[in-house]
Amino acid sequence: MEQTRSATRVLIVDDEEAQRSALAQMVTSWGFLAETAADGQEALDKWEQFQANVLLTDLNMPRLDGKQLLRHLMEQGSSVPSLVITAFGNLETALETIHDLGAYWFLEKPIQPRELKLLLERAAAQSKLAERAARLELQLSYKGVLGELVGSSRPMQQVFSLVRQVAPSRAAVLVRGESGTGKELVARAIHTLSPRAGGPFVAVNCAALPETLIESELFGHEKGAFTGALERRAGCFELASGGTLLLDEIGDMPFPTQAKLLRVLEDSRVRRLGGKQEMTVDVRVVAATNKMLEDGIKRGTFREDLYYRLNVFPVALPPLRERKDDLAMLATAIVQDLNRKHECKIADVSPAAMDRLEQYNWPGNVRELRNVLERAVIIAGEGSIQTQHLPANLSTSDSRPAAVTESASGPAVSLPVGVTIDQAERSVIEMTLQHTKNNKTRAAEILGISLKTLFNKLKSYGSMDATAEDAGS
């Protein structure tokens, strides 16, 4: 209940200064945020600025009384729960106010603190539910947007439908999709639309942590648990208690750690490394992967029991090449965000530039699209993004994607006639990364180059993530 009260604003309206001050002091002592007004007119003047979650108002006041105040708010479309204060003998009027003007409840003078506190908590809870429902309704009214996810294509509408269905539950979710498709955004949307929205959202990348550190990151450790453990540290499960934990790239989790994770998922209890006591955690787990976990089960690198524990509700994200109908909407949303980030004034993407974007195959998916547009926004600065603002492999007629065919020795890459050496090299690198499911170490081995050289190549392209931490993500 403390989280609810800490975020709840209460507007207290009473013409008696002593009563007004006493109520404000009492409400503040319970952890609410309080503002006061001497009558209904002053309350209306403060309404927009204070944005109250709960209204506590007397009935009889000069200028604008309680009934008139509630009537004005109702006409403005406000649905904030209102508690009416009434003196002895005005009970009938208070009940009429509740019936006619939608007040939440009433309190008789003298006000009993325990009764007031209970009613405020209930009204605050109702206010939060109403706000969440309003946000969801607004999102659903704009077809193609759910949280930070954007797309009106049929594949994305199916994803939106699955997210809306699973969000209110406690079920574990497994989000699958290629690197850069937006798996973390799906997890955040599930969290935002769930009853846990007021709790923490914690994300940990299982591929970015060495085996020696991942257990400490997940479960925490006590001081002295291992060399370098200079103080006690809470793990991700503790930090996410009451909220949602995203286990990103779960397919890269070390096999020994998988058994310990399975135990935590089964009994909701965690023990820090070096600790002697277990603690209960209340965490909703969403896992994400760009790998075929079924292949890992066959190879013995992924536990079958953990797979079934995580795969309660699967959500598959389509790659960008399979939902190009969303490109225009995605580009608009990304450009607007980049305008704010870089303080630019890009109005839109020109038809010619959009045509180039639609011709490309987007092996890096939405992440690559964002990187391409970020470069273009910075170069253009204002006006429209033109073809000359796009990378060379996107702004030439020979930028058709490389095709992958099967030969006796495995996958083969075919390139269109007229492609430049640089474009051919990039296509081979990108297709090799696709073949290895973005495992950069394996891709470097296949290409016969060092991992450092591969990262330098990716960095020079500017449209793909070239950070070592993203290997396999």
Task: Explain the layout of strands and helices.
Elements: H1 2-6, E1 9-13, H2 17-29, E2 33-37, H3 40-50, E3 54-58, H4 66-75, E4 82-86, H5 91-101, E5 105-108, H6 113-141, E6 145-146, E7 149-150, H7 154-166, E8 173-176, H8 183-192, E9 201-205, H9 211-219, E10 220-221, E11 233-234, H10 236-239, E12 244-248, H11 255-267, E13 269-270, E14 279-280, E15 284-289, H12 293-299, H13 304-310, E16 313-316, H14 327-342, E17 345-349, H15 351-359, H16 365-380, E18 382-385, E19 403-407, E20 410-414, H17 421-435, H18 440-447, H19 451-461
Parallel strand pairs: 1-2, 1-3, 3-4, 4-5, 8-15, 8-16, 9-12, 12-15, 17-18
Antiparallel strand pairs: 6-7, 10-11, 13-14, 19-20
Keywords for this entry:
473 residues, alpha/beta, Rossmann fold, Helicase, Ruva Protein, domain 3, 4 domains, five-stranded parallel β-sheet, 19 helices, 20 strands, 46% helix, disordered N terminus, disordered C terminus
